[in-house]
Amino acid sequence: MSKQPLDLTTQPHSQQNKIKWLIGLILLMFLILWGWNFWKKSQAEKQDSFSQWSKPVPVRVVGVQRGDLQLEIKAIGTVVPASTVNVQSQVSGVLQKIYFQEGQYIQKGQLLAQIDPTPFQVALAQAQGTQQQNLAQLHNAQSELARYQLLYKQDSIARQQVDQQQALVNQLKGQIQANQAQVDAAKLQLSYTKIYAPIDGRVGFRLKDAGNLIQANEATGLLSITQVHPIYVQFAVAENYLDIVREASKNKQSIRVSAWDRAEQKQLATGSVQALDNQIDLNTGTLKVKAVFANTDDALFPNQFVNVRLNAKTLHNVVHLPSDAIQHGAKGTYVYIINKENKAEVRMLKLGMVSQGQTEIVEGLQGNERVVLEGIDRLSEGQDVQVVQDDHAHPAQAKTVAG
């Protein structure tokens, strides 16, 4: 059996075909991958065209203001009466009658109560009787002394008798002075049976009823009186404002103070600073301040809780804007302003004093910019914006209360 020769020319040809197929497969994979990326990118661009994040950000802007800014210090205060008197009886006895109504406003010197005067009238009569008795003895002794002096001139008696009679007269004169003191003391005790108002003010609830036995200087007393015209409000301010308050006090300026209700919705009264405490409280780092109010309408009531606003200082011709527009970041304090192309720009600031809703701008703004107040969360440098509300044309009047 004969062997056929092997055809070596077919092997290189098959290898070349395999390489061509492999190259084609690789090219096909690259084409498929490129097409997939192109389709994915086009889909993303299509989605971005409908995304809210790619559109201009709607914002509300306010105008930076330049003008006077009133710095007010805000504090919590307590209404304190000008005077508080606990009326007590100075003598013991039965309370006969009460001449006031609970809650009544009374005048100084007005009769409030009557204690049974009978025992004190008896004591006065007894003292006056003893005084009359000693007066009669004195008159008799003085007559005897005149006779002794006449007899002594006639050399009828010794000098010793005249001197003894003179001593008796002097002794009786001393007794008369003591008797007068007893009479005055009895009259004073009798006067204490009528209790009068020591100050103007409003009467509280009575603590004793008529018919009770009253002891002198009892701790509970009969009633209390609080003077409410004028009235004071005591509050504390941070020591940071010490220089401002002291400067106004030294210049004898009247520092205006207003008292507001608990919800800070209604102004109750206006007054002025009366006095500053002589030291700062180490525990709180605050200075106590007392303000006086006329309180003619009785809007303030003793021990009432009030919110206080103290007009400490007026800043003239300063740049200020709403505090809500100010942002705080790692680089410092800044705001977003809107330029002429309606794009957002970051503007770094240096701040001054703070008022309720308003902050003084020391550096960073000139007073004619538009500042973003709402819609800040989606903003970035150069971001297009859509102004939905512009308060620049009608800037709000700055409210002025500092915390």
From TrEMBL:
<protein>
    <submittedName>
        <fullName>Efflux RND transporter periplasmic adaptor subunit</fullName>
    </submittedName>
</protein>
<comment type="similarity">
    <text>Belongs to the membrane fusion protein (MFP) (TC 8.A.1) family.</text>
</comment>
<feature type="domain" description="Multidrug resistance protein MdtA-like beta-barrel">
    <location>
        <begin position="230"/>
        <end position="312"/>
    </location>
</feature>
<feature type="domain" description="Multidrug resistance protein MdtA-like alpha-helical hairpin">
    <location>
        <begin position="124"/>
        <end position="193"/>
    </location>
</feature>
<dbReference type="InterPro" id="IPR058625">
    <property type="entry name" value="MdtA-like_BSH"/>
</dbReference>
<dbReference type="Pfam" id="PF25989">
    <property type="entry name" value="YknX_C"/>
</dbReference>
<dbReference type="InterPro" id="IPR006143">
    <property type="entry name" value="RND_pump_MFP"/>
</dbReference>
<keyword id="KW-0472">Membrane</keyword>
<dbReference type="Pfam" id="PF25944">
    <property type="entry name" value="Beta-barrel_RND"/>
</dbReference>
<keyword id="KW-0175">Coiled coil</keyword>
<feature type="domain" description="YknX-like C-terminal permuted SH3-like">
    <location>
        <begin position="319"/>
        <end position="387"/>
    </location>
</feature>
<dbReference type="InterPro" id="IPR058624">
    <property type="entry name" value="MdtA-like_HH"/>
</dbReference>
<dbReference type="InterPro" id="IPR058626">
    <property type="entry name" value="MdtA-like_b-barrel"/>
</dbReference>
<feature type="coiled-coil region">
    <location>
        <begin position="162"/>
        <end position="189"/>
    </location>
</feature>
<keyword id="KW-1003">Cell membrane</keyword>
<dbReference type="InterPro" id="IPR058637">
    <property type="entry name" value="YknX-like_C"/>
</dbReference>
<dbReference type="Pfam" id="PF25917">
    <property type="entry name" value="BSH_RND"/>
</dbReference>
<feature type="domain" description="Multidrug resistance protein MdtA-like barrel-sandwich hybrid">
    <location>
        <begin position="84"/>
        <end position="225"/>
    </location>
</feature>
<keyword id="KW-1133">Transmembrane helix</keyword>
<keyword id="KW-0812">Transmembrane</keyword>
<keyword id="KW-0997">Cell inner membrane</keyword>
<dbReference type="Pfam" id="PF25876">
    <property type="entry name" value="HH_MFP_RND"/>
</dbReference>
<feature type="transmembrane region" description="Helical">
    <location>
        <begin position="21"/>
        <end position="39"/>
    </location>
</feature>
